[in-house]
Amino acid sequence: MSGSKRNVWLIVGLMLGLVALGSWIGVRWIKRAFTGVMAEGRQYYDEGTRLGRSLTATACLDTAFARHARAPNGSMGQQITEGVFLEACLRTGAPDGLCDTIPPAGSLTEVMKFSLWSVEQCRARGLTDRSCPRLFQAVSNHCRRGMGQRG
């Protein structure tokens, strides 16, 4: 084999080795990060469940907004943990007619009205960040599942 072919194969082998090493490191990093996210989500779920046992649905929503106002950075992780907390709190909280005040979000027209309404609700609470209205999505999901009716 000539020297130039050997050099080409050496370079190809090194590149494949680097790709394999990078892939292995990436998989390990993602696995570790995912485990951390799942643990954090579980913590927020447990906290929401525990707190919800002593609150009404409206108090759960107020608590979620108070927590959001302390750190409104809007990161994807924060939005997920806020939603997990609120859904767990609503699931165990006492129904108090909160769902009677939430507009439906079934059809496209209703979704648009719901979106505008949720932005207005956030502004009324002094919150103007883009992630605030997403908290109402957890409430809408809860009400749509029929879990918020008075028992």
Structural class: mainly alpha
Overall mean pLDDT: 86
Number of strands: 0
Helix content: over 70%
Poorly predicted regions are: none
Could you give a short account of the major beta sheet?
none
- The Cα radius of gyration reads 24 Å
- β content, as a range? under 5%
Overall geometric form: elongated
Termini separation: 83 Å
What string gives the helices and strands in order? HHHHHH
Number of helices in the DSSP assignment: 6
Describe the structure.
- The protein is elongated, with a radius of gyration of 24 Å.
- It has helices at 3-52, 57-70, 76-92, 98-101, 108-124, 135-144.
- The mean pLDDT is 86.
- Helix 1 (3-52) runs parallel beside helix 3 and helix 2 (57-70) runs antiparallel to helix 3 (76-92).
- It has a domain at 45-144.
- It has 6 helices and no strands.
- By secondary structure, it is an all-alpha fold.
Concise summary:
By secondary structure, the chain is mainly alpha-helical. The protein has a domain at 45-144.
What are the SSEs and their pairings?
Layout (H helix, E strand, L loop, with lengths): L2 H50 L4 H14 L5 H17 L5 H4 L6 H17 L10 H10 L7
Helix pairs in contact: 1-3, 2-3, 3-6
Properties at a glance:
mainly alpha
